[in-house]
Design brief:
about 120 residues, alpha+beta, ERH-like fold, four-stranded antiparallel sheet, globular, EHR_sf, ERH, Enhancer of rudimentary
Length: about 120
């Protein structure tokens, strides 16, 4: 997940550039976390599931990623399904990297919890 990525969000009418797909996935989660923080100002910790994040993404008229493919020297458009799958892979990898060495836990493949403390 290291290719330059551009996110296009129509209902927000915005375009944002990232050095990697990973940065773009963090930004998407950050957008949702910002919304949750506004809706729950007293909460010190934000916690949600993949389905919640996906519903948030679905509220946009257009949610597209353009990912640079060096082998083709062009940007490839990626749809919402690709973005959702990339989020799962991205955050599953983060959880695995931060988990202590212990036997693997069983979980459903399209669910993850993401926690971030507000500063």
């Amino acid at each position: 997940m290291g290719n330059h990525t551009i996110l296009l969000l129509q209902s927000a009418n915005s375009q944002t550039d990232f050095n990697s797909e990973s940065e773009a996935m963090d930004h998407i989660a950050g957008l949702y976390e910002t919304r949750l923080a506004k809706e729950n100002p007293g909460a010190g910790q934000v916690q949600y599931r993949a389905e919640d994040l996906f519903r948030f993404i679905d509220t946009y008229k257009e949610f597209v990623a353009l990912v640079f493919e060096p082998s083709k020297a062009m940007y490839q458009p990626r749809d919402i399904a690709w973005i959702k799958e990339s989020l799962i892979v991205h955050f599953s990898g983060q959880q695995a990297a931060s988990a202590p060495l212990s036997p693997p836990r069983h979980h459903q493949p399209q669910q993850y919890d993401r926690q971030r403390r507000r500063r």
